[in-house]
Amino acid sequence: MTQMAIAESSSMEAAAGPHDRARALGAFKLGDAVFYWTTRICALSVLAILGGIILSLIVGAWPAMQEYGFAFLWTQRWAPSADPPVLGALGPIYGTLLTSVIAMMIAIPVGIGIAIFLTEFCPQWLRRPIGMAIELLAGIPSIIYGMWGFFVLGPFLANTLQPALIAAFDGVPVLGAIFAGPPSYLSLFNAALILSIMVLPFITAISRDVFQTVPPVLKEAAYGVGCTTWEVVRNVVLPYTRVGVIGGIMLALGRALGETMAVTFIIGNSFRISSSIFAPGTTISAAIASEFAESDGLHQSSLILLGLLLFILTFFVLAAARLMLLHLEKKAGK
Amino acid sequence: MNPLYASRRRTDRIVKALCFVAAAFGVVWLGLILFTLFYNGFAGLTLQVFTQNTPPPGSSEGGLLNAIVGSLIMTAIGVGIGAPLGLFAGTYLAEYGKYDRLAPVVRFINDILLSAPSIIIGLFIYGAVVIPMGGFSALAGALALAVIVIPVVVRTTEDMLGLVPNPLREAASALGLPRSLVIRRVAYRAARTGLITGVLLATARVTGETAPLLFTVLSNQFFSLDLTRAMANLPVTINNFVQSPYAYWKELAWTGALVITLAVLALNIGARILGAERTAK
Predict the structure, then answer these.
(1) Residues B250 and B123 in one domain
(2) Pick among A3, A9, A11, A42 to test the B interface (most B CBs inside 10 A)
(3) What is the pLDDT of residues B66-75, one digit of tens each?
(4) To 5 degrees, how large is the angle CA B11–CA B13–CA B14?
(5) Size of interface A-B (CB pairs under 8 A)
(6) Does residue B185 sit in the same domain as residue B65?
(7) Which of A21, A261, B192, B232 could cross-link to B220 by cystine, CB 3.0-4.6 Å?
(8) What distance in Å separates residue B215's CA from the closest CA in chain A?
(9) How far apart are CA A157 and CA A179, in angstroms?
(10) Cβ contact (<8 Å) for A140 and B9?
């Protein structure tokens, strides 16, 4: 602020003479340099945050890394109170990957379907309200999803959809084991469904944005040779925007992998791996959220190591997503 | 009618119907969640919620005053630290970054931090602030929120400054204004509503954040303004109350959830209206 005041007062005096003009220019130069370096240091602090995150995770996880080594990745047992504690990450890793994959299997078709509806079929006056509703869905805090899943969705699924699926696939070789009972309020499947609702807005928003980058001439040409709307979408819009849509999907996957509160409420927090998706399980983030505050020593270090694994996983997924979207921006001629 | 044409039309109709169902599916969730929140939380939304502290176990007298005040304080500090830092960093990327090879790297890393799991940020602050300070504190929570605010503000600032037409800057430079004043007096002013939108969106984003607060501030049953100690806050209070066996605590949790959701939606809608005004001009 003082910098600005100096610059201002001296700029008014600048007309007075050569000496004052030199002083004013000096003040300008100083102000410029100060501003430049302030912004530059702030920009570099973004890199410092990333460095800080990686460093603090590695430091915190070091004791667990030394104790368990790579066996941590494929040990299923999680017994923090055993002596010595036996801790393995297989359960949370399995839960994280499984819930994310199921969530994406639901969210990808639905999310892209909504985007197609919004850009191709929807009457003009409905576009804004529906688009806004989907975007607001993204704004609802994740703990609300968790509560809602725990009190509303969980009981609903356990009483209706789950028994139906269990009965339908009873006795079928592989599917029978995947959809095995008993139905439960707390299960991997419930968590995956909540996750799919949470990542839906990300897929829809990005798909809609990239669908709008398709040049109208291309679509008009396809309509001109007699294509139906669906044929235009399938043969023109989707191939043209493929990279961007996949980028959006990866971004949503990155979110799904790291989502914490919504999952913690309804996944049941069990480290045992079961073949049924209706059994309780855990994810990396849920394990950290529910155990970290009461942990110490090797147990805490193992939880931080889990966090490090999650960070590495999401980092690569998100980096791939960004590279794809960047590629699309370049293609769009930015 | 030509059978091939009929089957093509049929496919088209089916896909249209499926897309419509998908859109309905998305909107229905929003409706259901809001309905549940109002159904369970509205009855408890009395003046008492805003004037009394959280009740002890088993009691049915009390509100959420300490939690609301704590959340407001931590959000204010978090945004207060994160927003200026993000604003300057975004300014650098938009105004100076064109010929700096570091700028694309910063942009890329920032985009990744934007979507990084918030629980990881909690772990980071635990290692970087909570352990050195020797205990859970409101300051640590506020710093965790700041780390979440920064990437959001960097991104919107850069985008908004990018929309300011270059002739404005050139005209100011031609008058002899130094670069820093061109940015502060011309570019910031032209992009002002956009910059405010970014800060509002960032505030909305951290308002309901729970995961990074779980083990940085913990929570507190009592009213406290001490930044170096654990402080009550709305998200963690909701988290603890919802899983409790006491009916009144659960009721308060739903009310708190309603309050927090309404706050977040209001911030989001406010930001959108501001943004819409800008494009309409």
Answers:
(1) yes
(2) A42
(3) 999 999 999 9
(4) 65
(5) 256
(6) yes
(7) B232
(8) 6
(9) 13
(10) no
- Neighboring chain B residues of A300 at a CB cutoff of 8 Å: none
Closest chain A CA to residue B25: A110
Residue A256 buriedness (CB in 10 A; 0-12 / 13-18 / 19+): buried
Distance from CA of A169 to the nearest CA of B (A): 25
Name chain A contacts of B102, Cβ cutoff 8 Å.
43-44
Q: How far apart are CA B152 and CA B86, in angstroms?
A: 8
A228 and B27 within 8 Å at the Cβ level: the answer is: no
Chain A residues within an 8 Å CB radius of B92: 39-40, 42-43
**Tokens linked to A313:** 């996983």
pTM for the model: 0.89
| Same domain, yes or no: B99 and B22 | no
Closest CA to A214 of A202, A200, A226, A232: A232
Look up the CATH number of the domain holding residue B66: 1.10.3720.10
Do B88 and B16 share a structural domain?
no
Mean pLDDT score across all residues of chain B: 89
Q: How far is A171 from chain B (nearest CA, A)?
A: 31
Phi, psi of B215 (to 5 degrees): -125, 30
Taking CA–CA distances from B181, the nearest residue in chain A reads A32
| B18 and B79 part of one domain | no
Q: Closest Cα to residue A202, out of A104, A284, A121? A: A104
User: Which residue in A136, A151, A296, A324 has the most chain B C-beta atoms within 10 A of its own C-beta, making it the best mutation to test that interface?
Assistant: A136
Same domain, B197 and B255: yes
Looking at per-residue pLDDT, the higher value among A46 and B58 belongs to A46
Q: How many domains does chain B have?
A: 2
Q: Is the pLDDT of residue A36 over 70?
A: yes
Residue type, A29: K
Please answer yes or no on whether B178 and A254 come within 8 Å at the CB atom.
no
| Dist CA B53 CA B221 (whole Å) | 8
Same domain, B201 and B271: yes
**Most A CBs within 10 Å, among B92, B219, B234, to test the A interface:** B92
Q: What pLDDT was estimated at residue A334?
A: 46
Residue type, B12: D
DSSP assignment, residue B47? H
Q: What's the CA angle centered on B72, arms B242 and B225, to 5 degrees?
A: 95
Q: Give residue for tokens 């002890």.
A: B56
Please check whether residue B82 is in contact with residue B146, taking contact to mean a CB–CB distance below 8 angstroms. Answer: yes
Which chain A residues are closer than 8 Å to B254 by Cβ?
147
pLDDT of residue A155 exceeding 70, the answer is yes
Q: What residue numbers bound the domain in which B39 lies?
A: 3-43
Q: Which residues have CB under 8 Å from A333's CB, separation 6+?
A: none
Give the count of beta carbons closer than 10 Å to the beta carbon of residue A299.
18
What percent of chain A has pLDDT above 90? Answer: 41
Residue that has been written with the tokens 């669906």 in this structure:
A230
Based on the fold, state whether residues B33 and B78 are members of the same structural domain.
no
Pairwise CB contact (< 8 Å): A289 & B120 = no
Model confidence at A2, pLDDT cuts 50, 70, 90, reads very low
Complex ipTM value: 0.89
| Digit-coded pLDDT (tens) for B105-122 | 999 999 999 989 999 999
Confidence band of A49 (pLDDT split at 50, 70, 90): very high
